[in-house]
Design a protein that fits this description.
The chain is an alpha+beta fold and 322 residues long. It contains eleven helices and ten strands. The strands form three sheets. It has a five-stranded antiparallel beta sheet with strand order 2-1-10-9-8, with helices on both faces. A three-stranded antiparallel beta sheet has the order 3-7-6. Strands 4-5 form a two-stranded antiparallel sheet. Helix 4 packs across helix 6. Belongs to the class-A beta-lactamase family.
Length: 322
């Protein structure tokens, strides 16, 4: 009888310890998840950031291409260089992954390159070349959130084409370079009239490559655009867009709790969108440039296949040995 009592006591003790251990593990896991979810933007980077080209991931690249090629229309557009894509998986900030299709093919991007005007304005304010004011703050918000052409033209006139080009070409930003297909460019007012400063490769007035748009967002979230504080200001301006079409139309449905930082554009058959998605279940940058009359719908329908590609690539990544 005594042996039975001892045995029961040991079983109960083990059960309690096992439960406590399980609770501790669960608690730690939850804490880590919460910490990862609650990371504030821009993220803290101790050393210089890795260049976007060096983040290209072979597995993600292959999976992305296969996912896009499943759709015959998309495959055709890609083959004709009428569709370009860029994605950055930010799920693991210690292992950021980039992939792109036609990502160095510069295309007309309508209003998306207004982010270049925002960057030039922030740089000018930081360096004392443009005096900040409530009017300027209002125009920058209108330019990005509502894509207001009049506000954008006022900002272009304030900073000038030379400043915009200087900032885009600067060694710190490297957002436009002829050697890598061009990139972001604004060389014309929005709404017509006035002089122009078209980019040299294709003579485009409002241009982008998906790689350099990804690069813009990547540098912004790491506090590398102008300064950490100015990057934070740009993030706030780009947060919660007023226009809910293209990427945002889908994100509103599948990721209602995520923060979305975004700029898009459309003109005739040219449709573009870019978004930084930062939420409990999603952390990534997605960019698309389309030259097709159905571009708006295509961009809406791209979100979930792009998410699928990133998720698939993560599942194939071997855990690092500690």
């Amino acid at each position: 009888m005594k042996n039975i009592v001892v045995l029961i006591s040991l079983v109960l003790a083990y059960s309690c310890e096992s439960q406590t251990t399980t609770e501790r593990i669960y608690s730690n896991t939850t804490q880590v998840t919460q910490q990862n979810t609650n990371i504030q933007l821009p993220i803290e980077v101790k050393d210089s950031i890795t260049k976007i080209d060096d983040l290209r991931n072979i597995q993600l690249q292959s999976i992305l291409e296969k996912e896009i090629n499943k759709n015959k229309t998309w495959k055709h557009l890609v083959a004709n260089k009428s569709m370009a894509i860029g994605i950055v998986d930010l799920t693991d900030l210690n292992s950021i992954k980039y992939a792109g299709i036609n990502d160095e093919n510069m295309m007309y991007a309508a209003s998306l390159p207004k982010i270049a005007v925002l960057l030039a304005a922030m740089d000018a304010i930081e360096n004392g070349e443009l005096e900040d004011s409530q009017e300027i703050q209002d125009d920058m918000k209108l330019m990005i959130s509502k894509s207001n052409n009049q506000a954008t033209t006022r900002m272009i006139d304030r900073v000038g084409y030379a400043k915009i080009e200087e900032v885009l070409r600067s060694p710190e930003n490297q957002l436009y370079d002829e050697e890598t297909g061009g990139g972001l460019w604004v060389g014309k007012r929005y709404g017509g009239g006035g002089d122009t400063n078209r980019e040299p490769l294709k003579q485009l007035s409002h241009a982008a490559t998906t790689k350099q748009v990804c690069n813009f967002y990547y540098q912004m979230i790491t506090g590398n655009l102008v300064t950490d504080a100015r990057s934070r200001e740009m993030l706030e301006i780009m947060k919660n867009p007023a226009l809910h079409h293209k990427f945002v139309n889908t994100l509103d449905k599948i990721a209602p709790k995520a923060d979305v930082y975004r700029k898009s554009g459309s003109w005739k058959s040219y449709h573009s969108d870019s978004a930084l998605v930062w939420g409990p279940q999603r952390r990534y940058i997605i960019v698309a440039l389309i030259d097709d009359n159905s571009g708006e719908t295509i961009i809406r329908n791209l979100v979930q296949p792009l998410e699928k590609a990133m998720k698939r690539a993560r599942s194939l990544t071997k855990p690092q040995k500690i």
